[in-house]
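queue> holo job accepted (adenosine-5'-triphosphate)
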Amino acid sequence: MTGVDSGPAGVDDGADRGPDGADGGFIELDGVEKVFDVRKKTGFMKRERRQVRAVDSISFRVERGEMVGYIGPNGAGKSTTIKMLTGILTPSAGRLRVAGIDPSRDRTRLAHRIGVVFGQRTTLWWDLPLVDSYRLMHRMYRIPDARYRENLDRLVELLGLDDLLDVPVRQLSLGQRMRGDIAAALLHDPEVLYLDEPTIGLDVVSKSKVREFLRELNAERGTTVLLTTHDLQDIEQLCKRVMVIDHGRLMYDGPLAGLHEAGESERTLVVDLERELPPIDAPAPARVVRVDGPRQWLAFPAAESAAPLVARIAAEYPLVDLSVREPDIEAVIAKMLHSLGDTPKPPPEQAERAVS
Ligand SMILES: Nc1ncnc2c1ncn2[C@@H]1O[C@H](COP(=O)(O)OP(=O)(O)OP(=O)(O)O)[C@@H](O)[C@H]1O
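queue> job finished
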């Protein structure tokens, strides 16, 4: 692949490359809103019109080369934001720019500069061998031949796709298909990659392959990544910065450690001892929360390292095995929102008027 600075896929798309990343951000949102009009049948011949405020006055900037987690509970407005960033949806209000381009006005021009991966859907042709999807993208994006071959070779190697190129997409496992989708999103050298649940349903090995690849992509090519996920380890291993959205509003923007602190979240150290013993005498704030035979569960602050606790237990107890369990992302967010005094609200909809 070529460097991001040389532009995507050698296509002179005429995009405004001037100000992005300079005084403004590479991705910029100012007071962006998205309101959906929804009609609901409420009786015979009676319909009610409602407004759903999916995104509510969101402002943020992402600089070129950043990897940012964009997380929140179900229905928070994450996918709606991503769809506005790709130009699929038009904001109801506010200003939005990606690489200086207004996505909904210049969707085609933007398409040459962004890549999108939806974990739950594929952009590949289901019945065709994997490589045929790539050939179609080669034409669609008008990628020069030499660059296409160079990019394909590199992605095939990095993502371990060599033996899969001639396999019809429908025969690929979920992890193989995901790697195939990521390659498809990157063939045209996009400067920004939107990832919506890229590790959903993958086994541990596939998850770590995908994460490793994304880390390398970001480090080597400076690709800007906006990542939506329900897996806290995706964020932990990939993103220095995380944004939390809830009911369409931005509730937190900062490092993951800060999110843990705000939510006072805890990790769990699961310890197997040689035999059944009384609860381990752990230094506060760590404490035993469960004992079952020789196995004990200790909760400790997620923002702290497990190392001192492990060292102490290893020195004082007959330790056989141990593992650390990460807090559930929903639990972290729920605690953080609670600590901000954000009590659960009804769905973001308001009855506007009834129509017959
Ligand atoms: N096309 C649409 N028409 C009407 N309402 C919509 C539409 N798309 C999304 N919504 C509503 O907007 C809100 C935000 O949805 P969105 O899909 O952006 O959430 P999300 O954070 O991506 O959720 P999830 O984690 O479940 O994917 C929800 O209340 C949803 O029902």
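queue> The chain has a mean pLDDT of 83.
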